[in-house]
Write a structure and sequence with these properties.
By secondary structure, the chain is of the alpha/beta class. It has a single domain, classed as Rossmann fold, CATH 3.40.50.150. Helices cover 23% and strands 31% of the residues. Strands 3-2-1-4-5-14-10 form a 7-stranded mixed β-sheet, with helices on both faces. Strand 11 and strand 12 form a beta hairpin. The longest helix has 14 residues. The chain is globular and about 50 Å long. The termini are far apart. Bound molecules: S-adenosylmethionine. S-adenosylmethionine (SAM) binds next to helix 3.
């Protein structure tokens, strides 16, 4: 399996390297022995990287193609993991209370209309004292079309459906594809409020001014230290945020 965008290093993964970035590792402690639910796992590269480090992983995505590729990749890599085709706003009740850690990263909530449904599902899936770690693209970066000059292409928050033309796919192999897509802008406050409303105890919310993955090649600049930043008028703006929350006992 190849990835023509270069966004995903599948060959490197099959050769033994991990898809877990420095930023992900700074948020997630060792997962060995944990039951881990990966929401919107796409084709499972991060899921299988966690599984390789000893987690018992279940990945969920609503794309049949993504789930099929995840299962193929697991077989190819010889890593046991379970992949479930489901909408993260309607997680199967069979997942309830099964996990120590729910993880989701980069480009998940912007596709979800109901934050309440998403966080309620994540909450139900956890055992008492289980943790949620969400590492997301910052909505400020998502709404930015150009850093210089500064141009915004959408709104910051509110959750109203935004229809836009999607050029290519982040899955690779179809760079010439152009198709309408629907996204839902959720501000950081709305995200944290939905988590609290679902019953989570919020432990930490961190906004990151740099990332080691180039989520928006059109607006991010790679600095000499190797980190990607969104710099506007000499100031670094947040490119990602991480939310750590617990389902209390
Ligand atoms: C940008 S990818 C997630 C990135 C992932 N962390 C990775 O590195 O591959 C977004 C994924 O969300 C999935 N998705 C979008 N909306 C969903 C929903 N409501 N339920 C389940 N999966 C969804 C898409 O199919 C896609 O695989």
């Amino acid at each position: 399996m190849t990835d023509e965008t270069g966004h995903y290093d599948v060959d490197g993964f099959l050769g033994g390297s991990s898809a877990l970035t420095t930023t992900i590792r700074s948020e997630v402690r060792p997962v060995d022995g944990l039951d881990l639910l990966h929401l919107q796992c796409h084709f499972g590269l991060e899921s299988l990287s966690f599984a390789r480090e000893g987690a018992r992983v279940t990945g969920v995505d609503f794309s049949p193609a993504a789930i099929e590729h995840a299962r193929l990749l697991a077989a190819q890599a010889g890593i046991p993991a379970t992949f479930v085709e489901a909408d993260t706003q309607e997680l199967p009740t069979s997942l309830d209370g099964q996990f120590d850690l729910v993880f989701a990263s980069y480009g998940t909530l912007c596709w979800v209309a109901s934050l309440d449904a998403w966080f309620q599902g994540a909450f139900r899936a956890l055992r008492p004292n289980g943790k949620l770690i969400l590492l997301e693209i910052h909505p400020l970066m998502l709404m930015t079309d150009s850093a210089s000059p500064l141009v915004f292409g959408s709104v910051y928050l509110g959750g109203a459906a935004q229809v836009f033309q999607w050029e290519g796919t982040y899955a690779g192999g179809a760079a010439s594809v152009s198709q309408p897509a629907v996204g839902y802008p959720h501000g950081v406050g709305e995200v944290v409020t939905a988590a609290a409303r679902a019953g989570f105890v919020i432990e930490d919310l961190t906004e990151h001014l740099r990332d080691d993955k180039e989520h928006r090649p059109d607006v991010l600049v790679r600095d000499p230290d190797g980190w990607y930043r969104l710099s506007v008028a000499g100031q670094d703006l947040p490119v990602a945020y991480s939310l750590r929350a617990t389902r209390a006992a």
